[in-house]
Amino acid sequence: MSRLAIKICGLSTPDTLDAAIGAGASHVGFVHFAKSPRHVEADRLAALLDRAPSHVKTVGVVVDPDDATLDHLLRAGRLDALQLHGKETPERLAAIARRYGVAVWKAVAVKTAEDIRASGLYRDVADLILFDAKTPDGADLPGGMGLRFDWTLLRDYRAAGPWGLSGGLDPHNVAEAVRISGAPLVDVSSGVENAPGIKDMDKIVAFCKAVQHI
């Protein structure tokens, strides 16, 4: 197993989930957000969660969810973490952590060094900070668009806790991304797809192998 954590996100079928697990992913992510091409309804999520072995961490990805949405989602099965990918405040993260007792991740959209610094607002309430590329104004999706940011912005980042890198990663550039940023966890979605929401099992395996050889 690589010393780096690997999250394959946006999984929606048993075959691609099995491919991610078999290739050595440490985390698997499932998107519950209706606007996303990777959206998974709670009933389908339940079947996928049942397939995930206990040593693989399961992450539910949500965008500005209300409690009713989270209640519904967490009834589906074992979710080890909730990844909040919207405009949630530190106070909202703390409230979710208290109510549900699961790890809470915060995706932080990055374009400039100031965005990196601003992530400090979540330092005391997020179990993990995930740096992702900022999407264009007016975009329907807060992530999963294959965009990347300048990884050198993370060179001087002094993490106070666990963190990861997302946004535009693929089997060909992930080694460079880790070398530049020093990321301890890498998160891929569109970079292992043939089309939005359509995962490619060979690309999933290639991504995991690329990380494992870093």
Automatic annotation (TrEMBL):
EC number: 5.3.1.24
Catalysed conversion reaction: N-(5-phospho-beta-D-ribosyl)anthranilate = 1-(2-carboxyphenylamino)-1-deoxy-D-ribulose 5-phosphate
Transmembrane segments: none
MF GO annotations: phosphoribosylanthranilate isomerase activity
Gene3D superfamilies: Aldolase class I
InterPro entries cross-referenced by the UniProt entry: Aldolase_TIM (IPR013785), PRAI_dom (IPR001240), RibuloseP-bd_barrel (IPR011060), TrpF_fam (IPR044643)
Occurrences of domain N-(5'phosphoribosyl) anthranilate isomerase (PRAI) (ranges): 6-209
Keyword tags: Amino-acid biosynthesis, Aromatic amino acid biosynthesis, Isomerase, Tryptophan biosynthesis
Source organism, top-level taxon: Bacteria
Pathway(s) where this gene product acts: Amino-acid biosynthesis; L-tryptophan biosynthesis; L-tryptophan from chorismate: step 3/5
Gene Ontology biological-process entries: L-tryptophan biosynthetic process
Family: Belongs to the TrpF family.
Protein's name according to its UniProt entry: N-(5'-phosphoribosyl)anthranilate isomerase
Organism of origin: Sphingobium subterraneum
Lineage of origin: Bacteria, Pseudomonadati, Pseudomonadota, Alphaproteobacteria, Sphingomonadales
